[in-house]
Write a structure and sequence with these properties.
Layout lengths: L3 E5 L2 E2 L2 E2 L2 H15 L3 E8 L3 H11 L3 E5 L8 H15 L3 E5 L2 H14 L2 E6 L1 E5 L2 E8 L4 E5 L6 E5 L17 E5 L28 E5 L9 H8 L5 E5 L1 H5 L20 E5 L5 H4 L7 E6 L12 E4 L2 H13 L5
Helix pairs in contact: 3-4, 5-8
The structure holds flavin-adenine dinucleotide (FAD).
The site of flavin-adenine dinucleotide (FAD) has 28 residues, from α6, α7, β16 and α8.
């Protein structure tokens, strides 16, 4: 089998999504441990501009598969076309994004091609000569290094885990165009895409983000988070998905895989457990402070300062200390 690492590019609205650069970074790291060619595959209709962007940005060879009627993402079609392509290419590793799209097609693809599937990959390590993929388990409290003896492994790469190279490659990669010809076995019919009207509410630009989690207890305590946020200039209030689902904050303030990714200089997580879906949206922050009453909270694994305390005790005391006049 040719040793190839295949990157499946993610795109939407005619643009390559930034997570594709992170998957490429993951593939390059893997290549350091196991010499292999890296190729990128992109599916769509049209596909030319996407392929050119990928080849210029990464310098890697790109397989551009024009797939009639695939103007919008469709999981059944992705699985069908990729199954045929992978059977021909026989890559050792197949890397997709751990996003709504990637999670929709990648595990089913692994079943079709009889590959192993390791989801939510955050790092790659070598242990006893074996390449292991690190992912979180038990709600993010523990990490597991997973190896597979399978000939092929499908990986879903957690956004925010690998740093994408922002510079363009010096030489563009070769592009191989083809058209998908196999009949698709679509069992679902796409009915169109309903775009979310939610726009980030300043959380993506703020220097300081104070985020509320379910640990705040009830809606009234959002006021406490606002008071803490007001201590910092250039700050914004954000929240975990649960807090937004409860209606305590707007979805425009949600941080995470299905919310917004933020990179403030300071991120203060209040009563947030640290589920992978939340952490992937904030782990790139400059400095992370977390307040949680559970000393084993997973959020502490990505925090620079860990405050084990009831936030309803800590935050008022902190505000009082910060706002009381300093003795001369
Ligand atoms: C497909 C999918 C996508 C998702 N997308 C997102 C996403 O984009 N963003 C996101 O945030 N989540 C997302 N989630 C949900 C995610 O898995 C978690 O359920 C969610 O992040 C948990 O929110 P939380 O940390 O606020 O609540 P919890 O997990 O309930 O944690 C509450 C924390 O508060 C602490 N606590 C309780 N009381 C106090 C107190 N008085 N003082 C201090 N600490 C206290 C507890 O110890 C606990 O750690 C997604 C899930 C799925 C399946």
């Amino acid at each position: 089998m040719t040793s190839t690492i295949l990157v499946i590019a993610e795109h939407a609205d005619g643009q390559i999504r930034p997570v594709t650069g992170e998957i490429v970074a993951c593939a390059r790291q893997l290549q350091q441990l196991q010499p292999a060619d890296i190729r990128i595959v992109v599916l769509g209709d049209p596909v030319e501009t996407l392929a050119e962007t990928l080849s210029q940005k990464t310098g890697l060879p790109v397989d551009a598969i024009r797939t009639p009627h695939l103007a919008e993402y469709h999981g059944d079609t992705y699985r069908d076309v990729l199954t045929d392509f992978i059977k021909e290419l026989q890559p050792r590793y197949i890397c997709a994004a751990h996003t709504s799209q990637g999670l929709d097609f990648a595990p089913g693809l692994a079943v079709r091609i009889k590959a192993a599937c390791i989801t939510g990959v955050e790092a790659i390590v070598e242990a006893d000569g074996e390449i292991c993929f690190t992912r979180r388990i038990c709600g993010g409290k523990l990490t597991a290094d997973i190896a597979s003896p399978n000939a092929q492994i499908v990986l879903s790469v957690l956004p925010g885990s690998f740093s994408a190279d922002s510079s363009n490659a010096t030489t563009a990669g070769a592009i191989c165009y083809r058209t998908a010809i196999s009949e698709t076995s679509a069992r679902t019919i796409p009915c169109g895409v309903l775009r979310s009207s939610v726009k980030a509410s300043g959380i993506t630009e703020a220097d300081v983000v104070v985020a509320a989690g379910r640990g705040i207890g009830d809606r009234e305590n959002i006021a406490l988070i606002h008071r803490l946020t007001a201590l910092f200039s250039g700050s914004a209030v954000a929240g975990s998905r649960i807090v937004c689902d409860q209606g305590w904050l707007d979805y425009a303030q949600q941080v995470g895989v299905t919310g917004f990714s933020v990179q403030p200089a300071l991120y203060i997580a209040c009563g947030i457990s640290g589920a992978v879906q939340h952490v992937s949206g904030m782990r790139a922050s400059g400095f992370i402070v977390s307040i949680n009453s559970d000393p084993n909270a997973a959020i502490f694994n990505v925090s620079d300062i860990c405050i084990v305390e009831d936030l309803k005790t800590f935050i008022p005391l902190f505000i009082e200390t910060a706002t009381s006049p300093h003795p001369d």
